[in-house]
Design brief:
The protein is an alpha+beta fold. The chain is 40% helix and 14% strand. Strands 1, 2, 3, 4 and 5 form a 5-stranded antiparallel beta sheet that branches. Bound molecules: flavin mononucleotide. The site of flavin mononucleotide has 11 residues, from β4.
Length: 232
C-alpha cells in the first residue's frame, strides 16, 4: 500500500477545516484557477458535470453579495445583543478576498438516464451529490494551497439566491449550490470534535445493537451543537 500518499491525504483532510475569520489579503495570481482545476475532476452523476464556477473578486460585487446575505441569510452567531465582541471574533467572511459561488446548471440533467426534462427527486438527489463532490474538491484544493475556506450554505436560500442572481446576472436555468469563502485565515478553528472510528465502523452482518441508541444520538447532537456554536 502506498503509505506516503495515504499520509498526505490524511494530512490534507485534517488541514481542511471551516474557517470563519479571514484576512483581507489578496490571493496570489492563478490561485483561483488552480483550485477550480481540481474541482473540475470531481465525479458527477453520468458524468454530466453540471457545474459552473463563479469567482467573485471585485470589492463592489462582494459588498453587494454580503449585503444580500446580511438581509436574507445572515451568519449564525453566538454573540448576543449587548455582548462585548472578543478581538478574535472581529474577522469575518466579509473580509475574505474571494467568494467562489458554485452554480448548478439544471439543463445538464438531459444527460441523466431517461433524459429528464423536468426536475424530479432522482435528478435532485444525483445533482445534490454531484455538486457536493465538486464543492468538497474546491475546499480540499484550497487547503492544499495553504488557504482557508468556509462553506457558506445560506447563499442558496431562495431570497439570497435571487438577489445574488440579480447582482451577477446569471440565468434562471442555473441555481446556487453553495458559496465558498476563500482567503487567508485570521484565526485558527478549534480542534475538531470527532466521533471515534471504532464507534462508526461496521463489518458485514450487524443489527440495531451495533448502532447508537436514541439517547446516545441525542447526547452527541447536543455536544456537536455546543462545539459548533463555540466556533461562531
Ligand atoms: C452542507 C453543509 C453546509 C454548511 N454550511 C455552513 C455555513 O453556512 N456556514 C458555516 O460557517 N459553515 C458551514 N458548514 C461547515 C460545517 O459547520 C463544518 O463542516 C462542521 O462544523 C465541521 O467542521 P470543519 O469543517 O472545520 O471540519 C457547512 C457544512 C456542510 C457540509
Amino acid at each position: 500500500m502506498p503509505q506516503q500518499e495515504y499520509d498526505h491525504l490524511l494530512d490534507l483532510v485534517k488541514t481542511r477545516r471551516t474557517f470563519r475569520k479571514f484576512k483581507p489579503d489578496p490571493l496570489p495570481e492563478g490561485c483561483i484557477e488552480k483550485i477550480i482545476e481540481i474541482a473540475r475532476w470531481a465525479p458527477s452523476g453520468f458524468h454530466t458535470q453540471p457545474w459552473e464556477f463563479l469567482a467573485v473578486k471585485k470589492k463592489e460585487v462582494k459588498d453587494a453579495i454580503v449585503k444580500a446575505l446580511d438581509r436574507h441569510a445572515p451568519p449564525i452567531t453566538n454573540i448576543k445583543a449587548g455582548d462585548k465582541i472578543p478581538a478574535a471574533s472581529q474577522g469575518s467572511f466579509r473580509d475574505a478576498p474571494v467568494f467562489i459561488i458554485l452554480l448548478t446548471d439544471w439543463r445538464a440533467k438531459i444527460g441523466l438516464p431517461g433524459h429528464p426534462t423536468e426536475k424530479n427527486p432522482l435528478v435532485t438527489s444525483i445533482y445534490c451529490s454531484s455538486m457536493a463532490s465538486a464543492f468538497l474538491y474546491l475546499h480540499l484544493a484550497a487547503a492544499s494551497l495553504g488557504l482557508a475556506s468556509q462553506w457558506y450554505s445560506a447563499a442558496s436560500r431562495p431570497e439570497a439566491e435571487q438577489e445574488i442572481r440579480n447582482i451577477i446576472g446569471f440565468p434562471e436555468s442555473l441555481s446556487i449550490y453553495d458559496m465558498m469563502v476563500l482567503g487567508y485565515p485570521a484565526a485558527p478553528p478549534n480542534p475538531k470534535e470527532l466521533r471515534s472510528l471504532a464507534e462508526m465502523i461496521h463489518y458485514d452482518d450487524c443489527g440495531p445493537q451495533d448502532f447508537r441508541t436514541d439517547e446516545q444520538v441525542l447526547a452527541y447532537a447536543q455536544k456537536t451543537w455546543d462545539w459548533c456554536m463555540s466556533e461562531h
